[in-house]
Amino acid sequence: MKTFISFPEARDIVLDHLPGPHEDHIALDMALGKTLGRPIVAAENIPPFDNSAMDGFAVRAQDVPAPGTCLPLAGEISAGCSDTPPLTPGACVRIMTGAPLPDGANAVLPIEVAEAHPTENSVTFLKAAIPGNHVRPAGQDMPRGHTVLEAGKVLGSADIAVLASLGQVQVPITRPPGVSIVTTGNELIEPSEPLRPGKIRNANGLALAAQIATAGGQLYGQFHAPDTREAVRNALEAARGGNMLVISGGVSVGEYDFVKDVLEDMGLSMLFWRVRQRPGKPLVFGLLGDIPVFGLPGNPVSSAVCFEAYVRPALAGMLGRQNVLPRLESAVLDKHIPKKRGLHHFVPGQAWWVDRTLTVAPAGPQGSHIVSSLARADGLIHLPELLEEAPAGMSVSFERLR
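^ that's the sequence the OP posted. Answer follows.
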């Protein structure tokens, strides 16, 4: 087991010890936000036929070589029409946006450059026709046999449109990992209970469940254990049926911190304990069989920050997502932040733009127990461990919170 390691090393260890994704299928109308399990290849051309991009007139370009050309009107084609006779050479047909182009036609002239003569049943064109103008070729959007969506993509509304266009009513996704949450502590009571002396409400359980949902996981079960070895063991045994186990509290060196010892008794292969970071130094990670286990500190900011730094990327990895690590933006500090050399600081911060420069500052008083500052934060300001100070005006990395 490694101990007191750097943030980058700790995260690398996590990402190197994850089980792979499992494929599942889901109805298209339930696929938004899910992770695509395998590539989607177009089984047909989209659009399936050459069609008009404008309301106008379908012509053979060679029949309208110059402005002033007049052609007889041979009919009309509306969107959805399935019976389109070939275009007679030397004639034109009125056509609507999205309607199939008749055989023989190779251009569309918009109604804005045409003068219809109803009594003569003819049309004079004010511009010459150019082959291909205002024509959407078959397969222009998605050619048959082309990979249109890659595995690991988180499906958004445009992806749903692509799948619907292809008739993909059952979507291959990666199964959301089932995550168990165990909170520990004699001091915790339910959020619905009135406060009593020495007690605090259990905020971490609900906060972690919300973070799991936004990270693409699925809550397997939520358990609580008071600070006794037996209670912790019972809760952990009940929670180990999921694909991941996240524990809040009981991982430090206090007299009532039993989690680490109980996990080792249960057969945990502990890969590291304690990370050079603030907040969240007493972090545990290991494997219980093939189940990743995270022992997070009990303070609410520490718990939330460690989830973002380690658990969210781990869930992305287990889902097989294309982007596992968060995107970091370059920003400038608006004010000085106290910094301790040797620890990577995650500072809940607010962000705004000043003359096209992303500017950040702490979101309020900092402390592992001050959850209100985290609620005001737009993201986390990263201050690497080698920094000795973080003065105003310094360039920093900023990670948006979801």
